[in-house]
Amino acid sequence: MEVNRPNAARTVSFAVLFTSLVVTAGMLSTLLVTALTRAEATEDAQVRHMLLIVAWVALVLLAGNMVLMLWGAARMLSRRYGWPEKRPPPTPHVDAWAESGRRFHVEDEEDQEDEEDDEDRPHSDGG
Question: How close are the terminal C-alpha atoms of the chain, in Å?
């Protein structure tokens, strides 16, 4: 009977990954909001342009972070509740010693030696 329990190392690594992605998403969101509010408040065109570039970079990184979070969550949920992993069917049990005995054929060397010795020896007629 197979017990359905999660792998502890996989669970810990997923928790660390997911936590770091959430923290990164929070930092990028804060950077995005800060850059947009500062860009709106400034009068200098060059500073506004640089803050908008920072905002766009933060937005792109935030989108990538969200994709990674969704992928990780989908992978975790599919492993926990979804499809079973594809494993090859188990091989049948084979007794290695019996199999080697079945495959190994020994020619009777003793019988061949006895026949050769009988041919070389002179035959006696019972006397």
Answer: 76
